[in-house]
Amino acid sequence: MTVPVLDPVSQVAHRLAAEWSRTHRVRPDGGWWHFEPTGGGPLAQQGWKLHVSTVPTTAAEALRRVAPILLRRGVRWKSARTVEHLARLCSPPSPVSQAGKFVTAYLEDSADVADLAEELHSATRDLPGPAVPSDRRYRRGSNVHLRYGAFVGKITYAGPDQVRSLVVLSPDGTAVPDSRKPGGYRPEWVPDPLPPVAAPAPPVGTGLFGRGVRISGLVQRSVKGGVFRGELAGRPVVVKEGRSGTCADVLGRDAVDRLRNEWRLLRHLRGTGLAPEPLDFFVEDDNAYLVAEFLPGVTLRRFVERANYTGGVAAADLRVLCREVAALADGLRAHGVEPRDFTPNNIMVDDGRLTAIDLELCAFAESPEPLFEGCTPGYGKPGRDSDPDFAVAATTHFVLTGVDPFVGIGHDPAPHVDAMLTAFAPAGVEVEADLVRDRIGAPPGTTRCDTDQVVEDAVTAGEELVDRAEWDRGAWPWPSAWASEAFHPACFHTGTTGVAQFYLDLFRATGDRRWVRHAADLLDRVVSGTPFVPGTTPPGLHFGVGALPWLLADLSTLVDGRRAPLLRARSHALADALVAHDPGAWDITHGWAGIGLAQLGTLLATGDLDRRGHVLGVVERLLDGAQDRSGLPVWLKGSDHSYGYAHGSAGIGYFLLVAGTALGHDAAVGTAVRAARALVALAEPTALGHSWRGGPDPGSALWTHWCNGAAGVGAFLLATGRATGDDDLVEAARGAGRAITGGRAFGSANRCHGLAGDGDFLLDLAEPEFLDGAERVGRKLDALRVRSGRGHAWAHEGGSAPRPSYMRGHLGVHAFRLRLAGLLPHAPLTIPGSTP
Which residues bind Zn(2+) (predicted)? Predict the structure, then answer.
């Protein structure tokens, strides 16, 4: 057991393991201690779970109290492995459904639920603990909660979005979603083992808890509580909730105390214009609620990001904004408030006015009270997250670059700041940039990787994958920390098929045939271990196994004559199975367009004429399913439709274009052309060019990426213009390219909605101004490159540790850099000779 025994929970677990060694096995696994009766049979698939909640300061005591009860009864159960793990479960960004789940007991017999719940309640009734939102609370104020759900994680990807979901089985064997939403603690066919709870008496007065506040909408919900829009006496307000027991620290303080701290600070700042005006504060059912004035405008983060996508902020405006950020921090300090967690998320911008919000971690200057711990990654000085000068510099960095001064968990951003400012900030802000460098302590130096380094980085990443693969782990043979929690382990987007594509990229870039062998070995494992089960296995080109036949077909042209027939046979068998079942979607990442594109790719690779009929069948389905919306062919998802490449008309249009061209199908090409021309008419001016929203909703984001916006739609326009000789479409594609080169958009480093995907489109355009733009993308990626494992990589989207996935992780970034170096001919999952 590797967990340090200094942790209080670990100490108790070690003692329990010794005391109960004759009857129980105690083992650590991930973030949990598992307690299992020796000689017990396999765990049932589903049943009742009892959760006991607590807070870090009482976790060890709670375990001491509940363990004998559970061990005597011989049930299987687990507890959080450490105090730190419990604190993470009850703090952002942990999912709301995980709050408070310190102990979980698995009961196969519902007859045991009531007695055990009462015994656990009696043992812990005097200890603090948060409510578990996904469960029924045993009694008012109890730390014991229950819900019916899956024990062993029966998983399906059968929904239209093809994301991972847990299910339970109904009495007739039907898979039903294992709901973890508030109020959904049991399926309708499962009797409640507890008597109904009497509803609390209605509050005296009107509105929220009788305080006169009428709630009108949810702004956001997190494990620590919700933020709501509302109205009080005709005045728009914001209501913040602090849930008891969440964000708990070693002093016993929690989100309630944080919100109370914010209330005091707001009252102190009343009338200054530096923060919202406070209106009310109260505690109900142990949770705290703060009512404050509603501030118009948007957060500084959204203001900067929106401007960067549209190219609408000049250097002079950025300088003014930087001064306003500093003035806001100075104003808070002048009124005796130390700005902590001072970030673009916690500043509102409205008509040039900046206001601080979410002051719960701030403190009164010279206050003897201990500071509340925590800060947003990148905005706290390592080892000293309360340094306001560092936070102001970090926020200024974001204003100048549109990028957080954060390159991933565990990486010091300071060595990257100079390169990030050089690569991302515009000319004319040198004074502000130098101030950021000085306050963050950034050493000078801007790394520019040459071709040899690009190849070395990519090859090292591939070699680490080969060496660390362990197939006894299951369908994903690498560490679980590298896996996607949302998508199928064999998918292209984040799974093993994408890894195989990367191996083939390495072969094409280096000529080293070992990568062909590695790709063949990997795909052999994937096909053998992932049989296609209609209704369970996701079929999508990107989010399912739809790309597998195509990669198998490509690989069959590269291996020796002994292995090629088997690869072709497997390719054709899976392709036949995929086209025989409705995926429940139309688009190129989940649905028919992607399945059809894989059929076409397989046809072109192997010459198998059976594929021709399958491609034609998919074309006819899509033509029959098209509907017209003001001249744009659309394919509905419910009542909605999308414009972009990943989910909408652009991606479907691309398939119809290349399939129609290959088959000589005029109607398919004609529909693609109509889609392209209609999308041109829907473009909106951005930067020096134009881009597209995700769909007809005017409030949807105006991105410039592969999935939605200029890179994906522009690639479709370019392909259509080149295939048909329509110069207007090619010119429209150039406008999409200028939306990227003339703006400062940053979603992530990756291909799906980030720099690598944007850069790929610029390479498709293949004209000097766009090749220069692709080089600038390369320099930005160099600035964000970090040491990871044996080599170099980029943070996963959201700033988490690097993961080896093709569309959302660092493999696709390596592939773009290889293409930028002239070593790869085209983007993946495209038809050579066409764009994208």
Answer: 707, 752-753
